Amino acid sequence: MSSSNQQNLSFGNYPIMQSKEKHEDIKFINIQDIGAELDGEEIWLRARIHDSRGKGKNCFICFRQRIYSVQGESLVDVFGQISKTPSPVSSCTQSDVEIKIQKLFIVSASEPRLPLQMEDATRPDIGEETGGLAVVKLDTRLDNRVLDLRTPTSQAIFKLQAAICEAFRSNLNKRGFIEIHTPKIISAASEGGANVFEVSYFKGSAYLAQSPQLYKQMAIAADFDKVYTIGAVFRAEDSNTHRHMTEFVGLDLEMAFKFHYHEAMLTVAELMCEIFAHLQKNFQPEIEAVRKQYPSEPFIFTEKPLIIQYSQAVSMLREAGVEQGDEEDLSTPNEKLLGRLVRERHSTDFYVLDKFPLAVRPFYTMPDPLDERYSNSYDMFMRGEEILSGAQRVHDPILLTERAKIHNIDLEKIRAYIDAFKYGCPPHAGGHPLLIGMIHLPALPGTPKHVMPVEQIVEKVQKETEIYLKSELDGIIIENMHDLPYQKFDENIGPEICSWMTKSCLECLNILGNKRNKFLLGIQVLAGANKTAIAVAHASADEGWMDGCAGNLLRYRKMIGAEDIGIIVDIKKKHCSHSITKDINIAQTANAAEFFLADGIILTGNSTGQEASVLDLEGLK
């Protein structure tokens, strides 16, 4: 249809568009941009006819663009005037406006009989109870995939998928990661030969990559430091559950670390929380479109990721009355149950399960140095569904060879992979020890050495907090170091000390602002005792002469519902020495602290200002 004909007609069919004319004078608007503020404006719109109905001499047509609609499947151009509706149109996303059509031209006509109706394909998934309404079965959807992809739900899912990849890529780029592209046709099975597709490769055989894992590790050995990849993953698994797919898009990353694999674990966990927040902030219409067809409770998560030890998860399941072995992998029902238990206890749908049994992990997973039954590996879950698996990789060629033999892997087929670690490779997929700054308060009111005005004490807390925050430390511990001589035990600490310690912490939190949830804040109220008492208590654990308070303290924390407050143990008290030195080393002391349910460990030097021993730190690893 020529421009002149189009101007003279109010309706009709376009000829096949072969780019004959540009029509630069016609400007189209998106449905999502139409609102009551445009009342009276004349616009052009290209959309699909979603639905139509007659009423008297009038015809009402509902148009659709992706997930948005406004009052068949033919693609049309519409010219009309925007008008406010006298009452909301509940069946449309733009419920407060309508278009008084002046012109309508068919761009591409649809066949009159459709194999499925959009209304049926977007009906909420409520199982067998459909009230007699038509149900579009999966086979019908797959046989007519183009129509199925036009539904608002499918449009929203693909948009959310793209947003996840974009957020994954942009957040890792900001953290200094490099994107790499790994081979998808490989000479050996990725993880030991199971669940892989074998393909003919000229005169031999090859496999479709089950994972980019080995190539990511080789990149780390080549000093790439931090890498990620987004690409196809192939699994020869029967697709008889929603969790097993023969092909999907995987988001993988690998990174080197200095001392501990938790750096990688926390990096990934924080990345996931950032992606969740990004989706909830910027893609709420898409999320609601999916929830409309697949009803579910809103997804909840904490800004600071929840980390649970595998052994703790086993205990939670046993308390709930189910059988779960210490070294067994979690079954799907048990994963689901754990997700419900975590939500009930911790108000989060996202959590990290750390320290998996070694027997259920791939050959390249680093064993736990403190307990050979477990490994330095973790999974991340959403509502009891595993969405990510990670671990510290074995970077020593001798240990890697031993692990491969245990898994009955043909060493010749992974020779190039093992050899890559012979020339020195940094430990990877791990983390760094937390860097904690100390704020030593001047003597507080009520103590013999108190002279500094309280206003100056507050200023000192504010200034030192700002310094530590700018230095990008992981946390701060506030301590009443100068309240000499120290009082012994809680019953001797007066309310004036408690109130000024609280005031100091509040000032610290005010400086931290919106970073407080990612910044550790510790409090130590000194209950002084003599050097002998401290040495005996540390050397003899909680049953020592000092009457250690772990038992009472943990029970009190549970009673008042303060499990979010961590209890950190100083396992090498400065200004003193252990009376038992030959029988208990630093690693055994750390094990004892963990056994008695410490949430974390502090390693200090022998005196204030003296750095911790590197050898002691290696012993803790």
Rg, alpha carbons: 32 Å
Q: Count of helical segments?
A: 18
Beta-strand share of residues: 15-25%
Distance between the termini: 76 Å
| CATH class value of the largest domain | Alpha Beta
In the CATH hierarchy, the architecture of the largest domain is 2-Layer Sandwich
Give the integer mean of the pLDDT values: 78
Q: Give the name of the CATH superfamily of the largest domain.
A: Bira Bifunctional Protein, Domain 2
Classify the fold: give the CATH topology of the largest domain: BirA Bifunctional Protein, domain 2
How many β-strands, per DSSP?
A: 21
Oligomer state equals single chain
Helix-strand category: alpha/beta
The shape, in one word, is: globular
Instruction: Compute the number of structural domains.
Output: 4
**Spatial strand sequence of the major β-sheet:** 1-6-5-2-3-4
Family: Belongs to the class-II aminoacyl-tRNA synthetase family. Type 2 subfamily.
InterPro entries: Aa-tRNA-synt_II (IPR004364), aa-tRNA-synth_II (IPR006195), aa-tRNA-synth_II/BPL/LPL (IPR045864), Asp-tRNA_synthase_2 (IPR004523), Asp/Asn-tRNA-synth_IIb (IPR002312), BtpA (IPR005137), NA-bd_OB-fold (IPR012340)
EC number: 6.1.1.12
Organism: Meloidogyne javanica (Root-knot nematode worm)
